[in-house]
Design brief:
Number of strands: 10
Largest sheet: 7 strands, mixed
Strand order of the largest sheet: 5-4-7-8-9-6-10
Number of helices: 19
Number of domains: 4
Distance between the termini: 67 Å
Radius of gyration: 27 Å
Shape: flat
CATH topology of the largest domain: Rossmann fold
CATH architecture of the largest domain: 3-Layer(aba) Sandwich
Oligomer: single chain
CATH class of the largest domain: Alpha Beta
Strand content: 5-15%
Length: 482
């Protein structure tokens, strides 16, 4: 393209950063404008996965930016590495930007939007470099789109997800033979979907001939119901059983669905007996899914069952840094630490915090700093000079007549457990210590123990007036001891 065209493209990217910051990614810089033809601006993505993701998730934002910058009703069409730019259908180029009419032109493949699943099939387009995102995919209508951000390279490994990550890396290297099935469970927003998609991307990149079916449990259920209604069970079974890898997200939705469980039981058996890889994710462990048949619970445990735990403080900081880099957002260390202390459960909330700060930075026209973070998320952290954790422990042990060594022991009797929980609650509320640091004062307990203590005390305060008065009295004493 000419220099003016590149200037327009740069203006489009600037408009996206200003008005659609939530979709912007660092890899947008690798997109290449391929010319204006057939009434549209064509933009080439580095891989088919990137192309399909842009088509599904970013078209509206790019169209808005293009029309605003150009002043014309000019839509954006995304191309893969080997897709050709079309010419006008009258046989001649529509403008000086179009490719020469003498060049052999293949029409752009239609947007693959005709099913509820992502089918990743070979072969990989020759011009694209080898890498984790070089996966050809035929997406159907209603599919779950593979997100280029969800690669192993962008997954932050911590103590709570180390085993699940190692399992998925092993599965990607040797599908059907390392662990089969793999069942990953844990709360919402902890990275299960990231691991599933990372495996899909990796397998498809390293084995372009593999057939990978990635679908939600809800999608499986809906397709089963549709197949029964239309008497198309043969096609349904062919679709799910003639694959190399079946990946199903949120398998716990099979609960209470007897006919669907029956069909999935036979699908599972067919794939397993053929050494085809099965990967499942769930909010609950197999035995904790209500009304799930015993024979399915048993099969889900044939391979590896692993839980994903909430990330610890250090992992949360690393996640914030990684997510910010993907979005080309500069986040100082003190801001990352502050946000990691405020948000200690869900990875999705951490990503939302980055978007929130990014938007605030644009509105205020100033860099992200700690004052901005405090304004956005509430400066709930106590000021400098507040009570120390030693003062809190001293007041609590004095009131309950227990020893510090008892609080730090493994004892769980009520006479020790309650004072320990009160200490943790007051330390969380009145000091700047992280959950991990507070747990360290009480025999090296982890952050989940501290979180449980805080919730327990809050619940007890709201239901027992005498206990609430006790905690208020302790708070007055520790404030007076500053």
């Amino acid at each position: 393209m000419t220099d003016p065209d590149h200037q327009i493209w740069d203006s489009i990217l600037s408009h996206l950063r200003a008005y659609h910051a939530g979709i912007c990614r660092a890899w947008f810089a690798e997109l290449e404008p391929a010319g204006i033809a057939a009434g549209a601006l064509h933009v080439r993505a580095q891989t088919v996965v990137h192309r399909d993701y842009l088509r599904r998730e970013c078209s509206d934002a790019f169209n808005d930016a293009c029309r605003t910058v150009s002043g014309m009703l000019l839509p954006v069409r995304f191309l893969g590495p080997s897709d050709d730019v079309p010419v006008q259908y009258n046989g001649r180029a529509g403008s000086s930007h179009a490719v020469p009419a003498a060049q052999t032109i293949a029409p752009i493949p239609p947007d693959p939007l005709d099913s509820e699943a992502t089918v990743v099939r070979g072969s990989a387009p020759p011009p694209a470099p080898a890498g984790p995102h070089n996966a050809a995919s035929a997406l159907r209508e209603g599919s779950m789109v593979l997100n280029p951000d969800y690669s192993f390279d962008h997954f932050v490994v911590g103590s709570g997800n180390r085993l699940a990550h190692a399992a998925m890396v092993a599965v990607s290297a040797n599908p059907g033979r390392s662990y089969n099935p793999v069942f990953i469970h844990g709360g919402s927003g902890l990275g299960k979907t990231h691991l599933l998609q990372a495996a899909c991307l990796k397998i498809a990149a390293e084995n372009p001939a593999a057939q990978i079916y990635y679908i939600s449990c809800d999608g499986f259920i809906n397709q089963f119901i549709d197949a029964v209604t239309k008497n198309q069970m043969s096609e349904f079974r062919h679709r799910f059983r003639d694959v190399d890898v079946l990946v199903i997200d949120d398998i716990h939705f099979l609960a209470k669905r007897e006919r669907t469980q029956e069909e999935f039981f036979h699908t599972f058996n067919s794939l397993y007996q053929s050494n085809k890889q099965i990967v499942l994710s769930s909010d609950a462990a197999p035995e904790e899914i209500p009304d799930l048949e015993d024979r399915l619970i048993s099969r889900f445990k044939w391979g590896l069952v692993t839980k994903v735990e909430p990330p610890d403080y250090e992992t949360r900081v690393a996640i914030l840094k990684t997510k910010a880099a993907l979005r080309e957002v500069s986040i100082p260390d003190d801001v990352a630490g502050f946000v990691a202390n405020r948000i200690d459960k869900h990875i999705r909330e951490l990503e939302g915090a980055i978007v929130k700060l990014q938007n605030r930075s644009h509105v205020d026209k100033r860099p992200i700093d700690l004052d901005m973070a405090r304004a956005e998320f509430g400066d709930e952290m106590p000021p400098e000079g507040g009570p120390t954790i030693q003062v809190i422990i001293g007041r609590v042990t004095e009131f309950y007549r227990v020893k510090i060594t008892e609080l730090q022991s493994k004892r769980r009797s009520r006479s020790v457990a309650l004072p320990r929980q009160v200490c943790m609650y007051l330390a969380r509320k009145h000091t700047r210590h992280s959950l991990e640091e507070i747990g360290g004062y009480f025999g090296g307990r982890d952050h989940t123990t501290v979180m449980h203590a805080v919730k327990t005390v809050e619940h007890k305060r709201s239901h027992e007036s005498d206990f609430d008065e006790t905690v208020r009295s302790l708070e007055d004493k520790i404030k007076g001891a500053r």
